[in-house]
Write a structure and sequence with these properties.
Helices cover about 75% and strands about 0% of the residues. By secondary structure, it is mainly alpha-helical. Helix 1 runs parallel beside helix 8 and helix 10 (about 200-205) crosses helix 11 (about 210-245). The termini are far apart.
């Protein structure tokens, strides 16, 4: 049997997808209970917003540090994933013991910082198993990430569930993800050649037109995506309040937030299939146009049927 059609790769993809889903549930674990944290610590709207924003900042810093230190080539990807998932789980759980807003911000920053060792290594690990149908495989991982980030809102939607179950379920999930990868993963037949970090490659991103365009579109997409994901619970809450004359059903809003974010998982898998068959450039153009249009149109439906 050709290694490019070995059924083992699908089992590995399932393992990595499930681990990614569990690990990335840490991202919005505090965001899902922000109204409760605001009440406990007396936070302003801006301060509450930073509980989510600082996770993104931590992720960016963690990714930059991993690139400069060349961790992806120094440390086996599976080991890097497991270690970072464990540290991220610990930082996330520590928010429950935080004496106030300042320490909680530090813990959220560290959560994002260590998640930089969860998502990118999973992409690399997946690619070592797929040469054909790589678009589909990467789409599955991105879809798992998307659904995983929505999970805290699903937990929050369960009746009588408070702050601790939401936060701790995400941390437990990340620990399970670390164990799954540590025990069940091995590199595939298409390993990447180890290369030292080079500032020349950074210069090439600016100098080469194709890299500039790809980077600019990615940055624009990330700005839109994470702004929307962060904003959507507040938007849904305001929309429900307008439609119901001021009444807010917090459980329903959490469930709607989960659905709105998690639906992107199906889009990611579809995108992977489309990329393999029709080309990545076409997929990116269609997806960016549709996603941006939906964001623009969403304001029109404030207070409409949910």
């Amino acid at each position: 049997m050709s290694i490019d059609t070995d059924s083992t790769r699908w089992r590995v993809l399932a393992l990595l997808g499930f681990a990614e889903l569990l690990g990335m549930s840490l991202w919005f674990s505090a965001s899902a209970v922000t109204p409760q944290l605001r009440a406990i610590w007396g936070l302003t709207t801006t301060e509450a917003g930073w509980l989510t924003t600082i996770v993104q900042l931590g992720f960016v810093c963690g990714t930059a540090a991993a690139a400069v230190l060349n961790l992806a080539d120094i440390i086996p990807a599976g080991r890097l994933f497991s270690v970072c998932a464990l540290f991220a789980a610990g930082a996330n759980a520590a928010i429950l013991a935080a004496p106030g807003y300042g320490p909680a911000l530090v813990m959220r920053f560290l959560t994002g910082f260590f998640l930089a060792g969860v998502y990118p290594p999973a992409m690399k690990m997946t690619a070592t198993w797929f040469r054909s149908q790589r678009g589909l495989a990467i789409g599955v991982i991105v879809g798992a990430l998307t659904v995983g980030k929505a999970i805290p809102y699903l937990v929050r939607a369960i009746p009588h569930v408070g702050i601790r179950p939401v936060v701790l379920s995400a941390s437990v999930g990340a620990v399970v993800a670390a164990l799954l990868v540590a025990v069940g993963y091995r590199d595939g037949p298409f390993p990447f050649i180890s290369r030292p970090f080079s500032w020349t490659q950074v210069r090439d991103v600016v100098r080469v037109r194709e890299w500039r365009l790809a980077t600019a579109s990615y940055l624009g997409h990330m700005f839109e995506l994470y702004a929307f994901w962060t904003w959507i619970p507040a938007f849904l809450g305001a929309s429900v309040a307008v439609a119901s004359g001021g009444f807010r059903a917090s459980r329903m809003i959490s469930l709607l937030a989960f659905t709105t974010i998690a639906i992107g998982g199906f889009g990611s898998v579809w995108g992977g299939l489309f990329a393999d068959k029709r080309g990545r450039e076409r997929l990116v153009s269609i997806s960016l146009f549709m996603s941006g249009s939906c964001c623009l149109l969403s304001s029109v439906f404030l207070g409409g049927a949910t």
